[in-house]
């Protein structure tokens, strides 16, 4: 049942042109532009490597955000508004199976995004360090955290409110989540708050692994696990079919 729902959700997710723009085109475009044009001062964050070495981990985190949170929240919110979820609620499909199916579809999309961005980054001269398995674990935890938060938003707010809020959060986290602007460029009090957000934990954790070759960044893992547990638990508790 979960596999069938996940397959359906994946087909629906990949069929929407606007979703593909958000999940694939925008992160790829940002990676190419900011890696080749000196628009943002990365300061000492890039170390001795190329700009693409600094930017790629953040863009991978942005891809997770765009799919697991923004895209999923908007799509699910409008499914709820148009009565799609209400009809599913009348079927034998339980709420937990619907949420699991959507999360699995997001995971499949994130894998495809990662492959695309990896190819583009390597073509731009990216030299990844560290363990791919550790990076994959961080992205899995990030996907779980953002998926839970996206489903919570879509299952509790009106579709129009979800659309506005999801895009606003995407923009704010793009600017303040360590994606293209190093967290060290922010004042210390602001940086301390940003480091507790799942976006900063994911982007900085991936950067520690893929740029600096570090082991498992336990601080980032702890933040992502906390957000994943809170988001998925709240979504399972408060998600409404209509």
Low-confidence spans: none
Approximately what portion of the residues adopt beta-strand conformation? under 5%
Tell me the total number of β-strands: 0
Overall pLDDT metric: 85
The arrangement of helices and strands along the chain is HHHHHHHHHH
> How many domains would you count in the coordinates?
1
- From the alpha carbons, calculate the radius of gyration and give it in angstroms: 18 Å
Structural class: mainly alpha
| Biggest sheet details | none
Ends: how far apart?
22 Å
Estimated helix fraction? over 70%
Give me the number of helical elements.
10
**Global morphology:** globular
Describe the SSE topology.
Elements: H1 2-15, H2 17-36, H3 51-81, H4 84-89, H5 95-123, H6 132-156, H7 159-176, H8 188-194, H9 198-210, H10 218-238
Helix pairs in contact: 1-5, 2-3, 2-5, 3-5, 3-6, 3-7, 3-9, 5-6, 6-9, 6-10, 9-10
Give an overview in words:
By secondary structure, this protein is mostly helical. The chain has one domain. It has helices spanning 2-15, 17-36, 51-81, 84-89, 95-123, 132-156, 159-176, 188-194, 198-210, 218-238. The radius of gyration is 18 Å and the shape is globular. The two termini are 22 Å apart.
Task: Throw out a few tags for this protein.
242 residues, 0% strand, mainly alpha, globular
């Amino acid at each position: 049942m979960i596999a069938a729902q996940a397959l359906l959700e994946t087909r629906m997710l990949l069929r929407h042109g606007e979703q593909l723009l958000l999940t694939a085109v925008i992160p790829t475009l940002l990676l190419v532009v900011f890696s080749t044009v000196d628009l943002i001062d990365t300061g000492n964050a890039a170390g001795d490597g190329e700009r693409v070495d600094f930017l790629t981990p953040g863009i991978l985190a942005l891809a997770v955000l765009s799919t697991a949170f923004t895209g999923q929240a908007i799509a699910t919110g409008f499914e709820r508004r148009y009565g799609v979820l209400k009809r599913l609620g009348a079927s034998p499909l339980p709420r937990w199976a619907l949420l699991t199916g959507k999360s699995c579809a997001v995971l499949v999309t994130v894998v495809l995004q990662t492959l695309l961005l990896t190819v583009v980054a390597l073509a731009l001269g990216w030299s990844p360090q560290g363990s791919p398995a550790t990076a994959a674990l961080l992205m899995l935890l990030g996907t779980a955290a953002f998926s839970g938060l996206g489903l919570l938003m879509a299952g509790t707010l009106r579709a129009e409110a979800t659309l506005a809020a999801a895009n606003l959060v995407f923009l704010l986290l793009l600017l303040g989540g360590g994606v293209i602007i190093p967290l060290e460029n922010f004042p210390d009090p602001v940086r301390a708050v940003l480091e507790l957000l799942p976006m900063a934990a994911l982007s900085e954790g991936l950067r520690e692994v893929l740029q600096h070759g570090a082991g498992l960044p336990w601080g980032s893992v702890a933040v992502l696990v906390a957000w994943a547990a809170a988001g998925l638990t709240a979504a399972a508790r408060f998600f409404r079919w209509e």
